[in-house]
Design brief:
Distance between the termini: 33 Å
Shape: globular
Strand content: 5-15%
Strand order of the largest sheet: 1-2-3
Length: 110
């Protein structure tokens, strides 16, 4: 299961005063949408470890665009080591970060 990277990121954000909710791996899309409705997060982070799961991410982003078009979605994970990020230009709310350092610099550096 792909959980170590997201767990580290959640911990770092919590150390900087953010409230983080780590859902774990393989969260069903409808459960994710229900949780977003209930929790009303300021941002959502999605990590994909295998390139074969990128189509699931695309479908999830489609659903998010339809219902939560203004919700920033942070994208990362090893699935994008070879690139594979061109499709993200279709999702204005999705932001890809190639490393945890880039994400931390963007969100946590004053």
């Amino acid at each position: 299961q792909h959980t170590l990277g997201p767990k580290i990121i959640a911990d770092i954000f919590e150390l900087h005063g953010w409230d983080s909710l780590l859902l774990g791996a393989n969260v069903p899309e409808l459960d994710l949408l229900s949780l977003i409705e209930e929790e009303k997060p300021d941002a959502l982070g999605l990590s994909v470890s295998l390139a074969l799961h990128v189509p699931v991410l695309q479908r999830t982003l489609d659903m998010l665009n339809q219902t939560y078009a203004q919700l920033p979605v942070i994208i990362g994970g090893r699935a994008f080591c070879q690139g594979n990020t061109a499709f993200l230009k279709d999702f204005q709310n999705a932001m890809y970060f190639p490393s945890s350092n880039a994400l931390i610099e963007h969100y946590l550096t004053p």
